[in-house]
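Step 1: inspect the first sequence and its tokens.
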Amino acid sequence: LQRAEGRTPPAPGPFAPSVVHPRTLSAAAMRSAVAILLSAAALAAASPVTPIPNGISVQTVSSGVVRLTVESNLAFRVSVGKNGPVTEYPFLDDSRPAPPSFQTVNSGSMVGISVSGLGSVMIDPNSTQFAMQDPSGTAIVTSRQLLQPSGGSSICDTARPGFDAQDPVRISGDNGGALSGQTQESCCSACDSFSECTAWVYAPVPDQQDNCWLLKSASGVFPSSDRVFGGQTEPPTPIVGSTITLDADSSAVYYGSGAGQSNAGTLSRTSGFEHVENRESDAPVYWSSQGYSAIGLQAASWQARDGSVVWSQVDDLYLIPAADIDASTRGMWSITGAPSMLPRWALGFLASRWGWNSEEYINTTLPQFRQGNYPIDAYISDFSWFTAQDDYNCPSDGWSWYSDFGYSNLTYPHPKEQLSYYRSALNMRMMGIRKPRLCNTELLSYARSQGWLVEGGLNGRDLNYSIPAMRQWYSKNQAHFRTDGVAGYWNDEGEVYYFQFYWWNLAEVETLQSLNATERFFSINRAYTPGMQRMGAVYWTGDINPTWQQLQITPGYMLNQGIMGNPYTTCDIGGFTSQTNALLLTRWYQAGVFLPIMRVHSTESATPHFPFLWEPAAANAMRDALNLRYQLIPALNSLAYRAATEGKLIMRPLMASFFADTNTHDLTSQWLPGGSPLGAPPLH
């Protein structure tokens, strides 16, 4: 009643009045109070539950609408604040089976849905208390209050994991607003204590001297895997979606949000977000040792702290009961799609380099693999197969002479005849690099006139593959590559927007299906986003360095990708950016035997990573590694089939089979190819 009058009620306490006499209130306040009471009574009398396809819509008292639906036989979906159609994201598998039937259930003040063999999800419309239970009714994950508005009253409530400040200006004071040895809580609290501090950045990296920066201003935010941003920007950066909070056991460990250079050597995570860049692919996904998995796309992020998991900027959260990694993988693929079977040759040895610069070089290099008895299935070419010059300096209006969908006369003056010869005489296929952009003036002008380009990228020349008409045009222009004999694509530099690689691969898949609906698709890509696995799109870890440290974290890259839902990852064996050495390259070959895809690559100025170009002892060891790889191909092909049909990873972390042994929780130097034997190559 005092709030209706516009006055602040006294804080609760032994001397606070328990009754306010009506005569102290105005007539207007009385009418307002009565309206509030009548509204509450009407809400209580009305049912908060409305049936919708595959679930129910629940009207909460203070947090809007919450939809509880079953999305597959293994996954639930919680959608927040939506009265209209639920958003369908690119990662969803449109061909997945219809979800099973459900029953509406009640337990005390909670309402929800129950699915036989899966369990139930329930929410209290008044408090938004939440629970996901197994079929026996035992709680898997709960929340004392599931929903709260994005961005709370405190600057500490605005944390956005995976983002850094754009154009930061630090506050004045000691050390210029830089603090060391901080926790996230102490960092944001420090900002809260300075009147001129409007934003803060925290680095959850223990070995950094300064790991907290207090800011007077910032113009925006940008993705950064090892930063947490909180506060305001000028102009304000839109924060979309809701904040969802799940309770967490103190012993819970989280896996599967992806990896980059800073964290590929470990498996466990405390945060995750949507981000792709060279040498890093992340997704707001995790498996919790508490017994469930969660997927929150798109633009969502999560952070585990203070006995809870806080999801930010999320409207749709997929929850999967999952006692172990296998159950998590099956659940993820039940909504994002099972991985496609790759062509068998993709499991063999793939030889790539930057520098296939002439027909003569190609014709003299390829036979040396056969002459030296080095098993191989395909070679992969950089720019030079379709153009004599790269497009890095191509202006925004392009070059009139540039060929985006042709061949270079220096390397492929007779493309059909050459590719046919390499295939028939040497049993070698060719894969070619593709870029996500155009450089030919005429093609660029046409694409701009159709609105098919996206902001960003290299001089604004990147194509928007999410547009169906653009994909159809693109497919028509590149279809001849397939009929000419190009076996697959290596897609590079497509990180302008998060799902760029997804839509790009869809265009290539549509090309192949228009020509041969039964041929298996295979591509190599510099990023992975959930859902790409169902197309046969393989992730490669980017332009890595030829160092022992890089070799040591390479298995971790792939293990993290697998837990995130991507069973196929490869790398530049030997390192890309500069010259390697014989011992490092040999060790990398030996490790590559047990990786899902075995591929070498090198920069233009380095000695190619082809065995016959190295000293005899190293070349012999590389041949032995390749022979072992080819002995394992039948097993690898069977593991690929098991991944596609049973939902089991090809490259399994030891913790997936031995979680009771805490020594396995972050072990990346050993792994299980399928389930056995143990892969433990020398990495030093």
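Step 2: inspect the second sequence and its tokens, then contrast the two.
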Amino acid sequence: RNMTMEDQQRPQRLRSLLRLCLVLIVVSTVSAIGGRKERKQAEAEARQKYVELKQEGIDSVSNTAESAAMRAYEMRKKKKKGFLVKKEKSLSSVLFPGVSPVEYEDSEPVPIFAELVESRKTQVPYKFYDLPICEPMEENGSAKAKFKRSLGAKLQGQASVVSPYSVSVKSSKGCTPLCQITIGSKKLRWMRKLVERQYQVHLTLDSLPVLMRSKELNYAVRGFPVGFTAPPNYTGLKEDEYYLYNHLRFTITYREQADEFEGVRITGFDVHPVSIQHDLVDSNADLSRSSIASCGSDSIVRNDPESYLPLRTGPTGEPLTILYSYSVEWQESHVPWSDRWDVYLMGNPDDDVHVLSIINAIMIVLFLTGSTATIMVRTLRNDIALYNELDDLEDSQEETGWKLVHGDVFRPPSTSPLLLSVATGTGAQIGTSLILTLICAILKIINPMNKGATLTAIIFLYVLSGSVAGYISSRLYKFCDAKAWKRNTIATAIALPGALMTVFLVLNIFLAFVGAATSVSIFTIISVFLLWTCISTPLVFVGSYFGFRAERIQVPTKTNQIARFVPEQQWHSRYPWCAIIGGFLPFASVTVELFFIMSALWLHQYYYMMGFLLVVFVILGVTCVQISVVMTYVQLCGENHRWWWKSFFSCASAGFYLFLYSLWFLTAKLELVGFLPIVVYFTYMLMISVAFGLFCGSIGLLSSFWFTRVIYGAVKVD
């Protein structure tokens, strides 16, 4: 009776609101079902069109609308981004977020830049102008022009220089002579060596790497070879003959769309190398005004076995004279600028393979989670209940199992606690820098397609993470009742960086001796040294200061004065079997993703799946935690209280498996020729394996330390 009018209308409002919510849910469900049907229908139509084009013999590498449609279907999964809602994006926006197209005006000069000359058969690249090649024309700028390079680009030897080829928008050129160069026998032998080891020249135009395409074989490859080799059954000679590509036929595709943008957008950059013996002219003659029958402005230079240019001296040892030339053809294309990168990722594994790698890692984690849950929930809980029940009885029975070593489990390691502390702190520093790098890549702060910038970010983040290493190392060292804090701090600051710098300097001497582009200058070495001594080392001291100022880590049990005798252990708890068993599963959880990373490092492929890599990285950490906990529990049940180093090596041995994997990768995927390339490969893989092992080992030790504090804090100990 006392209800007001507003109280009477409130249930009606609630019912109206519920009806509205129900209507919205029904409408959204119907629209989602309709949208799903439309997507399935569109996918079916695209699949049908792809099948029809394939039956017609259309290739997927050309710059035609039909080939672009085939590429779009084959690479549809690479363009879908998002976790719950998959949104279609172009590969340009995925690979180069925030980069907008450049519009050129007619007849505007466009520079062609030259990158490194490198080979998959050797990891010793050379600079472009190490080749006997022409100097750039005046309108192209100087070949010695300085470009701003990041520290990572300098360490990798990346250097972009202006090439001698002159290109203007929509201005086609016939055969145009560049220069005439004479090379002696020594340089000739070096050039034959480059051809034999399949070195390739890499050029870029409007940030597009040059491509060699074959419609007949349906393939596209970046760069073009320095030359080629003909076997004796082809030439009739007693040994292989080497030929040089001295003429380049450039084909540049562009798109004009007046209603969308002004000017010209470049959508493709192709090359067709040709080997030809041009008619030579007098060395003092002006090539631009000379008439060369084999290089007419209206003629198309083609590969002809009768006119190949062999890399050999004259009959009486005369030096070889080479006439370089090129031609340019502009072709209009209907391929959008946003899809011009599709052809570069043809053949790269799509997201499904990365998803399978994550599923593989998750299955390993689930297996370990089951084992850990069995220990923590069943066995360990029963042990704790039994131990506490026995302590409540007047006539308690003799202690057995892992509780028996409660007076020694937190005894500091008898073997080099300094080295253990330094290794753990360094591993934590490596892990921190890698996680921060992956987060920056996911947030688009750095672009993984720019390998130089990515390496720079890793170096700077590692340097800035020095305080993490100092803090963890000092806290662990203080727990071991050690007093030499200065020695610990200095060792943490210089151990790994000093070792890596020493190995790098020795390797750099050999690379500089052979003239490799990856040999760094003394100024770059000084820059790295200053980063190490002026930033990283002080930060390690700062972290160490706070670590030693903090209170000693508290543990639930007291340590006996006399160490307990360790009985005979089972084979799986003894060295080296405990390390061999423990490191296998952490390595197995990242094996599939590791193959893509190795391919990007050594086979010059693209890797940009940073989200997948972060997930695999987290799974690796979880796997190391669980492996370390299980191995430590088994060891304590065997009344072995010396778990410190074993918990470290049980996960750190994953670095050993990584090095073994690099041996397989060398024999199965690489075709390195020569002693120095193999030394370079093994040196860098050894560095990576050591860093990987330190990271996994630090996780193993810290998680085992946490585990022992938890379980011994849950039982009653006198």
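Step 3: confirm your contrast with the notes below.
DSSP finds 18 helices and 16 strands in the chain. The radius of gyration is 33 Å.
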